[in-house]
Amino acid sequence: MNLLSFYPAAYRRERGDELLETLHASTGDRPSSKEVAALILGGLRAHAGSDHRRTARQSWLAASRVAALMLLIYGIAGSTQILLIGIPYTPSEAVMGYAAAALALVALIEGLRNHYLAAAVVSTASFALAAGNPGPQLNGYWHLPFAVVLFLVLARHRPQPVTGLLRWAPAIPVLLIAADAGLGTAFPDVAGILRFGAFAAVVLGGLLWLAVDERVALAVGMMFGGTLLIQLVLIASFAAGGNGLPAPGALAGQLALTGLPPVLLLLLGGTVARRQAAL
Amino acid sequence: MREPTYFILASLQDEPLHGYAIIKQAATLSGGRVKLATGTLYTALDRLTTEAYVRVVDEEIVNGRARRYYALTPDGRAALKAEAVRLAEAARVVIGVTRPAMGPA
Known about the structure:
The complex is a heterodimer.
Chain A: H1 9-27, H2 33-48, H3 56-84, H4 91-112, H5 116-131, H6 144-156, H7 172-183, H8 196-208, H9 214-240, H10 248-277
Helix pairs in contact in A: 3-4, 3-6, 3-7, 3-9, 3-10, 4-5, 5-6, 8-9, 9-10
Chain B: H1 3-11, E1 17-18, H2 19-29, H3 38-50, E2 54-62, E3 65-72, H4 74-92
Antiparallel strand pairs in B: 1-3, 2-3
């Protein structure tokens, strides 16, 4: 295995010889597993931009931007999937649904261009259109209010420009949607969590990626935190409407399963962000 | 400042060193506690270079490969000294200070 293959090409051209010379002097012809792991992590961190110091505040702001974009993509992809699979909408309901998706797409583009106030306004309009649709509800749009909150924070406290692998992190929700569309019942619902296997894989991936870039864990934590908020609102509205709720034990189990992953991701991500801020 | 960073800067306080020499000197100065892997060292050197605490001062070719020598910048030397003073003050709280014994209330 080329031990430097995990580093960016430009980094290998500039520093590759020097790293190999040091590695050879340090360990001879057979690098230890510790050396191999350090080179792999070093390469991934160089891709992620973690070889540059950043404050905890900068980590949280960058993660907030990624989370806002993730929530939009999750909303657009999930709702578009529902629109396309033939649920019986009237023509006017379908037009409202597609219009809401188009607005959410515009909000996504504005967010990617770092126009956060515009993204907040257009996301609000998209949510209002989707929520006001008399047809079957497009559940993906319930993530948009949290995206609006994040965009408003970012409009006030702008994050640093995004570079490296973090630019691709907003596409993570597509994995969840693709898993559902491609594999159907292969991922059973667990405690009301759709596509549970994919959900668990994304959470585990976020935790493992803490060693490379804590901002991804923070963003995934915020995205799933939004899902927890939606569940709490639904439970409250069911209770207020006199609808039946699961037994307390089952409800507590559902909430624990939904709530523990984002809490874990945010706590551990925050801890690593503080550590990353130290030289 | 993390301990490995402190000992990387400390290893450069007397003279410029190349990568392997920094690894050896950091291990010596830390009494064997800080054992830097190559990938970890260069991630730290990248961060310290970005912070302008170290800079490349020389380069030579050894066995066909580049060997770069790193040195502390004035800012790096000041940051190292500030951290050393902070650690010494923290240590004085526990070591070498006579405090009145805490008797019953």
